[in-house]
Hints:
The structure holds two protein chains of two kinds. Chain A is of the alpha/beta class. Helices cover 50% and strands 8% of the residues of chain A. Chain A has 26 helices and twelve strands. Chain A has a seven-stranded mixed sheet. A four-stranded mixed sheet of chain A has the order 8-5-6-10. In chain A, helix 5 packs across helix 9 and helix 9 packs across helix 18. Chain B has two domains: 2-195, no CATH class; 201-338 and 373-401, Rossmann fold (3-Layer(aba) Sandwich), CATH 3.40.50.10470. Helices cover 54% and strands 9% of the residues of chain B. The two termini of chain B are 23 Å apart. At the A-B interface, helix 21, strand 3, helix 22, helix 23 and strand 9 of A face helix 13, strand 3, helix 14, helix 15 and strand 8 of B.
Amino acid sequence: MDPRRGPLAVPKVRRVGFFTSIEPSPETPRPNRSLSGPAEAITSSSPLSDSPSGQFISPVQIPPSRHHSDNLASRAAPVPVPGPSAFRRQLANDRTLHVGSYNPVDSLLGTSPPSSNGEVSEDSGSLFGFQRSDSAKLSASFPNGGFNMTVAVRAPRESEAKVAIASTSDGRKKNVEASGESESVATKPRKEKETKSLKEKTSKAERRAIQEAQRAAKAAAKGEGSKRAGESSRPKPSKPAKQPQPKKEAPQVTSSLSEKRAVSVEKERRMDVPQTQMQYDDKSRVDKAKRRSVVEQTESKNKVELFLHLPQYERGNQLPNLSSNIFTLDTIHHAVYKVGLQHLAGDIAGDNARCIAMLHAFQEAINDYTTPPMKDLTMDLTAKINGYVSFLIECRPLSMSMGNAIRFLKNQIRKLPVDLSEPEAKASLCSEIGRFIDEKILLADKVIVQHAVTKIRDGEVLLTYGFSCVVEMILLYAHEIGRKFRVVIVDSRPNLEGQKLLRRLVTRGLDCTYTHINAVSYIMGEVTRVFLGASSIFSNGTLYSQVGTACVAMVANAFSVPVIVCCEAYKFHERVLLDSICSNELGDPDAIANVPLRNNKKHSKTMDNNKNLQFLNLMYDSTPAEYISMIVTDYGMIPPTSIPVIVREYRREDLLL
Amino acid sequence: MPDVQSTVLEFVNKLRKRKIEGSQATARCTVELLRSVISHHRVPHHANQASALIDAVKAVGAQLVAANPVELAVGNVVRRVLHIIREEDLSLATAAVAGLDLLDASDDDDEDVNNGKGIGYPAMSAAVVAAAARSTLRPPSLQTLLEGTPESATVPYTSSSGADSESKTADKSSITRKLKHDVIEGVNQLIHEIAGCHEQIAEQAIEHIHQNEVILTLGSSRTVLEFLCAAKEKKRSFRVFVAEGAPRYQGHLLAKELVARGLQTTVITDSAVFAMISRVNMVIIGAHAVMANGGVIGPVGVNMAALAAKKHAVPFVVLAGSHKLCPLYPHNPEVLLNELRSPSELLDFGEFSDCLDFGAGSGSPLLQVVNPTFDYVPPSLGGHNPSYMYRLIADYYSADDLVM
């Protein structure tokens, strides 16, 4: 939409190294901003390179001259009024048009000078309660994180950037007009109710954009403020800024301009750069994420200090509230909502099952989707999917495989031919999703079973841990084709998923031995092979799987028993995982506290409130590659060292996703 | 005598039914029982006092060990008591010989030699006397060095018995009483030692736990509890991760105790041991028994923790009282020195009854549930140096008693 966008964005450097370049400013409001923050801060604050704060910014990223001129232009003319902005403004004034629904926020921004610094849009967001689920929340609440976040964050931002320029200038204009629109905070909720959900998407994106821009500007101004200490009257970064309005406006507009321009090429690049995860010990970001969340989460009282970077919330208290909302919601498609609730309640377990459920829900949502007028299907649908994804994350952190699937879907949306009509596009997307499910999950499982069954010979004793649907299929198939073998099922509290597998295998007539994980070194002596499922496998060959898998693999390794991991290729991940601490998911601590045995029941109850006692329910652990003998995947049987090859080569050829 | 027999039987029954839990309790009960056996034992006047006592203790000990062969503490304590008897016996003999030498030097009387023989060591040869003299005069052993408990069983009696024999009024009955009395003294000291093993171990806690340490432990052990609390009382602040210890989940009990004493405690599942061990400075567990080769038998799951600790180069500390030192060399200890507990701890009876019918026709049950109690950590993974163990064991047990 802006012709200058292309050439400008070319010198934009990959943003990997930018964390440090922006961080040195000691007053940076979010000291540990993980995800989208730094990038925005950079893109938006770079125009300030002529200001004192410019020295904090890496000089390589954007040619200063252009920004200089931008900056000058924006300062010279208080209202640059680019084409789209004028258009929007026109629309905004025209109340009969739906698109105008974003006005309340803009006007709010315009008419409330004291809190001009990005807090406004957030406050308004919290007023909307659960309806507000824009994409940025995704970035904030993505604990499992991964490459998928690249898409998750990037895509919304491009749509934001598109509207950011309009909204900011719009808001400022209103401010100049001295709240001539006579929109006030009081009228806002009413207005909000009138808005249809689709339009709200627009306004949300805009609000988000404003917020981002302002935040960036705040960061920049902070640096500025540190130079001119006398002027700045802000005591704390997290508090609403009291800076005079005009000072903020200039960087704001320019930043959104540059951001917009940079986005399109940058998005291609950022595609390749794995995003860092949301760190939950970062107070300010968590607070922001919380204000946008649909699911009300109360933080658990007894947090484990080592895992403050992971979300630790109370479980089970949101469900009734959410289920009652199912008929009133309008931002989240009901199919997605249902899947989210199922995740929350733990009705769907297993990575494949969760992923398939999510994809089906997306299929349904896409089917029901209509592009709002004046919107681009690609942009809007991506934003919408982002909203869904962030809702799902609130329900339960996504697994790596789900992240990969979401990335696939976003890729498909992005690659839609422009000349495709809406029904065609939807149909193509749905069929692509269906193809993904069939090919990457279901068919892959069949291939894995075929491969793995060649490794089972008569008279073997196979050990498996917990429940993995692929391993179950392998065992059942091997039994079907007449192999004679025995299965040892190792299980662990609190989920005791092994009992599910045990029940299924015993009903089919397999010879089973059941034991708990502590006894694994007792039983390992008689085992000839270990079959394990996987949640994800990382580039360094680290297996990320249900907690306890590492113990089993380690003991098997000590007993020289081969460990065979069965994993579909779509679960591979190009990040590197070193330990089980940095990236993990925490389950319900109460599940640990409640010991099933009768004689122990009385103990745990009384201790609940003690500060010193914590219960840690890790969901995953990482198994070093050296414990893994072989990985059975849909591309064949490979050693763990070959994971990066598959990830890189097949992804490059677009075969993997 | 009959009342002793009945208490022995009662104790055997308890052992058989696994009513007594924990090797410390078992050891204490055993040694108290043996004490009563010894004190009630009436030896015929003409016979060899010591060997009669040894036979009696051995007979009872064999019953006890057979009742619960897995509880190695019983055998250990019986061996310790036998060792005490032998030591007392030898020390008396040495004293007698010393008295003889003294008398020989003074007045060269043949009668004294006869008297010495008449005391009750008719079969005593010069070699035995020499050995006895060596044993009394031997340098402070590792045990004395390590635990600071002097081998008082031997030292005081040399002087007293020497004085005794010097008075030359020793007749058979007094010698019998003397031996018995000395043995019971020794056994009392053993009881004292077993009862105080927690305190002795806990005393060392402060030397091993530093500020801000992160400690992992597994299941519940009183020794570990005392150890950690001792460090806590010395104002060290540290964090404890407690693996709950399937299938009995006694880690919850331990955690509760630790929290009650103000320690920062986190309960984790057993499966998370590997995940957490990279952030742990030290693994501390209580052992069930320490074998002569340096291998450790501990609660189930210990081997897993030891492997993980080795992988991450985390110190693996085993706390064991001296009654847990077992002079046996284990063969296939995972199986032979283990016992399987009830499957109901893992699966509820009847939960799987619906699908078990399927395999009924084939004759063999389709479903087995394995629930072992103990775990064996091979010496390569930690514990003491095997050669060191063997030296330590030589201090506690006499070689004659190893095979019971």
